[in-house]
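so my prof wants the structure for this chain in the tokens format not the other one, which i didnt know existed until like an hour ago. anyway here's the sequence
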Amino acid sequence: MKYRELFKLYNLKNLNQNKWSMFFIALSIVITMTVSLILPQIRMSKQEYINQAMQESNPADLVVTQSFPSKSFDKAISAYEQEGIQTSYVHSAPVYLKNENNQMMLYLLSGYENLSEDEVVISEGLANKQHLNVGDTIHLIGVKEQDKALKITRIEYLPIDVVDDAQVSGYIKTNNLESSYHSDAGLVFISGKSGELLKQELQSLESGYKYKTIEDRRNELFSDLDKQIMALNLISTVGYLLAIAVLISGITMLIVRSQKDIAAFMLIPIKMKDIIKAMKLEINILIFTPLILSVIFSIPLAKIILAAENISVNYTAAYMINILKFVVFNIFVFLLYRNVALKYMVNLDPVLIVKGDHGLPKRNRLRNIGIILSLPVVFSVYAVLLGSGTSMASNFILLITLCAIFIGILLLIELITRLPVWKYHRSTLYTFKEIKKNKLVFVIGILNLTMMLWFILIGFGLANTLKESVDMGYQQSLPYNYLMKTSDEEALNQVLVNSGDIKTFTIMHYMDAKIENDEVSNKQVRINEIDQKNYTSKFKITEGQDVFEGNPREILISKAYADAYKINIGNTLEITNEEKTVNYRVKGTYDSAGINNNWMLKASENQYSDTIYLVRAIDDGFLNEVKDSYIANMNVVGDYLLSKMDSFLTSFKYICFLFIVAAVIFNVNLLSLMNDLNRKEYAIIRSLGIGKKILVKQYMIKAIISIICSLTMSLVLFSVVISVAVSAISKGNAIIDGSMYVFIIVISVLFVLVGNISLFSGKYNDLEVIRE
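here's what i got, hopefully its the right format
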């Protein structure tokens, strides 16, 4: 009998008999293929979005970020202008959005000639925080025309050519509106000469400024995109692992259920080659049907995900060809592992099957090693097609991490099952014998649940956890939670002295300057003078002397600054301001918690006139009494991080939902396979009248172990991610909100319940199986 006839007469009927198992396998493949097709669409649309944003931004060959005056730089710019090179300026200064009090500080960026005088562009973070929309009218405090109504014409979702502080606090772009506060900060746009050449020439004259060519600006944005795609690709990679495992285990389950029929076909005889070909046609239905559906689903889903980030989709020929590449890749991958799984049929012995000695097909160690080694190659090809170098590196790290977790769980299970205490309890003894017999399946199930919980924690808990951890780190390390400047120092002093909301405050006089030492790459620094009588909000000294120990020409630098540039106590720093250079000896370091690391502290010599207040407040009620002041709440950093992470994780959350469904399906398939193999054993136990009780206890013990192991592993992984992120931003510990613990415990319990529901289905209660 030819394979086509066998397929029509047997395999189609077999597919119908196992329709629910096949449905879940197909659903798992649909989800994986859909995610794998969504990622390139997201990447391509965001690349186009970045290119469009770059075209709409200032097309200057070089953008220079200024933070202090420089005569040498100004002289060079004047020379360029005489040569016909075009320059334009954007001035940056703090202002306030007019509301009930002075809490909302932001940055005014003035000099965008493409805007009319009453039009403004605002940042996404500012729009979200103040619930502003295009068409709304706003008024600003701290500008020379305070009564002027300004109309919002656009919300900028991708900040380009914006000073760093403005990105954190929020910003407003205007034509020529001036701040009443003097600031030396701003941007200089230079066009008409090679950006790289301009950068080299100006850096040699003024190394304290930041310089970005148009390629630097573009590469910076694409680097951020690559990191986002890398995070999404982690889910896609695990999704592929699950789908491949589901496909192989599903085919194995089909072989187990059909092995008596296969043995009969072999004895007729029908060639094994034709039996395998007929089975391939059956499996092809499970691959190509999901493939068609994934193409249909991925396009609208990608559009929804991108719309959540205010990005539109342009369906060009290149866009569709990009999708087609990944369709071909998916066909190759799933057909490859289909063929690998069907190779198990070659080892079937029809005589042994007829005698009743049947079960899983014999394992081929070499083939299993081949499957494992092929996975990095498959994921590398996907990363190359995706055009993401970081994704390729992250895939290898993920695979190593999964192997480490797998081995860790395996050793933990081995340890638990060897404990002698279990032999005194019959149900527990049976459970651990069952676990040892199917150890690999049990460990894979825990690993699946661990990864699902980890992704849920990242997608739905990372942003808030990071904000709370950073805020707490600042609260514990910094002597202040508000930075304030004012045009009326006497009035502000009265409020701070008399308000019950104020715990301590320090007044500092400062000068922005440049450091000349070659080992320091970021040249901008601020020298802060402190009068001992006005020093109540005190910095924590980490090493060396305090502010008022030693002489006034000795300074303290932040520990972060010292570590970054390998500066030791006793080193001399050359500080320049207005062409005057002063040498300062480093006498100690203080804890800056990652904020304003370039601040340097010294005892007052009454040299500087600019004033800043560091305020430690218990409550913010005092703000209602403060007038004509600029106020920065340190929570603005956490809020900025929350906003950035929410934007970064928007796509991640959508993909995470799909992964959760895939993980549940994988667990159901895995346990269904094992329950099929243990079906007769369960029936015998029930027939003896002791089965229900033992099986319920077995289920509960397995569930408890799975939940405890997966919760522990996922929380450890999440804590590592948070700790690394927090340490990169500030000094603090990871703080996971209690509600997240409850949330993932509930999720893990539901996951285990759904995965094991097949144990109590009708077919496993059928005692007729004993007669087979």
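also thought this was worth mentioning. The mean pLDDT is 82.
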